[in-house]
Design brief:
The protein is 72% helix and 1% strand. It is mostly helical. The chain is flat.
Length: 471
């Protein structure tokens, strides 16, 4: 017998003696010990003893035990007993059950009581309920309460709310805190945010973190990013990780990559898996392979499935296939429908062809799309450009940025690293970088304004003060 088992045995003996003598607290603790030992029948007996004697915590624990067994009516009654007895856990569990059956007004009342008692999980839950009801101000208040108490899901939800509003700097700050706390969806969302800004090294870093922890959408998007950079072996690896975990976008993208390598048979298997999971791109690409080898009936079936799901390329491919088979009416109808779909944002293909890889979507956030070449992208943070160089401060900006770069362990992620360490917003640090680059290498947009140079130098000095204070 281990020392832990011996200690548990001694604890059980003492608790059992006290419980049998009528101590409700001991009865509740004994039930908890027995439940951890997987002796649920005996745990239930002592939870009932304690709950009958008015122990709110035991009533909540008994409710949770019965809920696991599917005894929802009994569980709800016990959660209510616990909540009315002052248990914040009971109040939260009761609220969750009420919300799940659509009784949102009463659920909100019990969430509020749990939050008032300090239950941070309930604060996050209440924020979610309020956001669904359209009360974003109330949701923000609750999410912020949970986030500031260290609740990583609350941090993520607060960040997501800010991102919905277009407040990307505040969203980034809370995503970073949640990701640093191990919340993988926050790391994925950071990858999305940096992709949209064109910071592909930062995007890759956060996609890797999330993908390495099993986030399948991040694995797919990491594969897409690597494919765009020409790293096809690594791209295939991450597509495969996503696809084998059941991600239909990863399966479709893996199929596309394999087909380009001439591995048509394997590509077909992954397209089929994606298509069977409801992925329209996979269904369209499967139809293309089948049409190529003359299996027109099966090709039509998959084109039709993809087209009916709104894929304009599949609708165009189906129209041409029907035309080739003499179905003029069907051809005209699907050409018409393809044009309608394309008018909604997806351009029709010029001919029968498979759809190219696309990024995965997670909640409200857009998946990756082809980035503009870095040399063609206008600097995002510079307020105004000038035909003449600024009168002063250029050398200071260049020197300051070079010094800041030496403080970052990885130059590719220097901006986000400095933002996390200092608390200075990402955009203000990135402004230093862009001003420095335009001072050192004036581009087609011109020189940065004196106002931009002065602001960049002020931000740099603030950064140095904060970093120096950290030691």
């Amino acid at each position: 017998m281990s020392s832990d088992q011996l200690a548990d045995g001694q604890t059980e003996s003492a608790l059992r003696a006290a419980a049998e003598a009528g101590d409700a607290v001991a009865a509740g603790q004994l039930g908890n010990l027995l439940e951890r030992r997987d002796d649920s029948a005996e745990a239930e007996r002592w939870y009932r003893v304690a709950a009958t004697a008015g122990h709110a915590g035991a009533a909540n624990n008994l409710g949770a035990l019965l809920h696991k067994r599917g005894q929802t009516a009994d569980a709800e009654a016990l959660f209510r007993q616990a909540a009315e007895g002052g248990s914040s856990f009971g109040a939260r569990n009761l609220a969750i059950m009420l919300e799940s059956r659509g009784d949102c007004a009463e659920a909100e009342r019990w969430y509020e009581l749990a939050v008032a008692a300090g239950n941070v999980n309930a604060a996050d839950d209440l924020g979610d309920l309020l956001e669904k009801q359209g009360d974003t101000a109330g949701a923000e208040r609750c999410y912020r309460q949970a986030a500031e108490a260290g609740h990583v899901t609350g941090m993520y939800h607060l960040a997501s709310l800010h991102e919905h509003r277009g407040e990307t700097q505040e969203a980034e700050r809370w995503y970073l805190r949640a990701a640093d706390g191990g919340f993988d969806s926050a790391a994925f969302s950071l990858g999305q945010l940096y992709w949209e800004r064109g910071y592909f090294a930062d995007a890759e870093r956060w996609y890797r973190q999330a993908a390495g922890h099993g986030h399948t959408a991040a694995a797919n998007n990491l594969g897409y990013l690597l494919q765009q950079q020409g790293q096809t072996a690594d791209a295939e690896h991450w597509y495969r990780v996503a696809a084998e975990a059941g991600d239909s976008a990863g399966a479709a993208n893996l199929g596309f990559l394999l087909r380009r390598q001439g591995k048509t048979w394997e590509a077909e298997q992954w397209y089929r898996r994606a298509a069977s999971a409801g992925d329209a791109t996979g269904a369209n690409n499967l139809g293309f392979i089948l049409q190529e080898r003359g299996d027109f009936a099966d090709a039509e079936r998959w084109y039709r499935r993809a087209a009916e799901a709104g894929n304009a390329s599949a609708a165009r491919n189906l129209a041409m296939l029907l035309g080739d088979r003499g179905d003029k009416r069907g051809e005209d109808e699907w050409h018409r429908r393809a044009s309608v779909m394309a008018a909604g944002g997806e351009p029709p293909s010029g001919g029968t062809q498979p759809f190219t890889p696309r990024g995965h979507q997670d909640g409200h956030a857009d998946g990756p799309r082809d980035p503009a070449p870095a040399g063609e992208r206008r600097p995002r943070t510079i307020r105004q450009f000038s035909d003449a160089p600024p009168g002063a401060g250029m050398a200071d900006v260049i020197t300051s940025w070079d010094r800041l770069m030496r403080l970052a362990p990885d130059p590719a992620t220097a901006v986000s690293y400095l933002a996390r360490r200092s608390g200075v917003p990402f955009e203000r640090i990135d402004h230093i970088r862009e001003v420095r680059n335009c001072c050192a290498h004036p581009n087609s947009h011109g020189w940065p304004s004196q106002q931009d140079v002065d602001a960049a130098n002020a931000t740099a000095q603030m950064l140095f003060r904060r970093l120096d204070a950290q030691g």
